[in-house]
């Protein structure tokens, strides 16, 4: 492991977040995606503010997210992807001399993790109908009351 990594000073949190949001305005993505990035980048900036910035900052952020039991895998991936887009754009603009996200993967996500929808079994549907106030009508129809 390379211990001769230069750590650079970072700017105050609010200023850094403002600059990140400005950077996201340059991306060729939808306005909704820009808003998502803007809402999530603060966690990465805060982490870098506490740990300092170096070529392992993205990897260290991933390891930090790994410890967050209050986030689902999908949420962790959203935070990690936001940081990745941010860092790649800084590299593209020449602000970062290297792509520090290279060879660092997102978290493994099972199909069940991505969607909270579960398979509906006949028993599950009956329980759902019982708890929701939906009553079965004649001719195999379901009526809501």
Supply the key terms:
globular; 4% strand; 2 domains; two-stranded antiparallel sheet
How would you describe what is shown here?
The protein has 145 residues and is mainly alpha-helical. It has helices spanning 13-24, 31-51, 57-66, 73-92, 111-114, 122-132, and strands spanning 134-136, 142-144. The protein has 2 domains: 13-111, DNA polymerase, domain 1 (Orthogonal Bundle), CATH 1.10.150; 115-145, no CATH class. Strands 1-2 form a two-stranded antiparallel ribbon. 16% of the residues are buried.
List the helices and strands and how they pair.
Layout: H1 13-24, H2 31-51, H3 57-66, H4 73-92, H5 111-114, H6 122-132, E1 134-136, E2 142-144
Antiparallel strand pairs: 1-2
Helix pairs in contact: 1-2, 2-4, 3-4
Structural class assignment: mainly alpha
CATH architecture of the largest domain: Orthogonal Bundle
User: In terms of per-residue confidence, which ranges show pLDDT below 50 for 5 or more consecutive residues?
Assistant: 1-5, 114-119
How many β-strands, per DSSP? 2
Percent range for helical residues?
40-55%
> Mean pLDDT across all residues, rounded?
80
Count of separate structural domains: 2
Just give the CATH class of the largest domain.
Answer: Mainly Alpha
Radius of gyration: 22 Å
Helix/strand order = HHHHHHEE
Order of the strands making up the biggest sheet: 1-2
What is the fold-level CATH name, i.e. the topology of the largest domain? DNA polymerase, domain 1
Quaternary assembly: single chain
User: Count of helical segments?
Assistant: 6
Strand content: under 5%
Inertia-based shape: globular
Largest beta sheet, briefly?
2 strands, antiparallel
- End-to-end span in angstroms? 65 Å
């Amino acid at each position: 492991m390379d211990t001769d990594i230069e750590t650079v000073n970072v700017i105050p949190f609010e200023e850094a977040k403002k600059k990140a949001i400005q950077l996201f305005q340059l991306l060729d993505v939808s306005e909704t995606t820009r808003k998502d990035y803007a809402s999530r980048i603060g966690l990465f900036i805060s982490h870098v503010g506490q740990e300092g910035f170096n070529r392992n900052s993205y990897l260290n952020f991933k390891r930090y997210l790994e410890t967050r039991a209050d986030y689902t895998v999908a949420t962790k991936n959203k935070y990690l992807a936001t940081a990745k887009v941010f860092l790649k754009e800084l590299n593209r603009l020449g602000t970062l001399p290297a792509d520090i996200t290279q060879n660092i993967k997102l978290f493994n996500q099972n199909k069940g993790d991505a969607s909270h929808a579960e398979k509906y079994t006949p028993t599950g549907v009956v329980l759902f109908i019982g708890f929701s106030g939906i009553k079965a009508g004649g001719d195999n129809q379901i009526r809501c009351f």
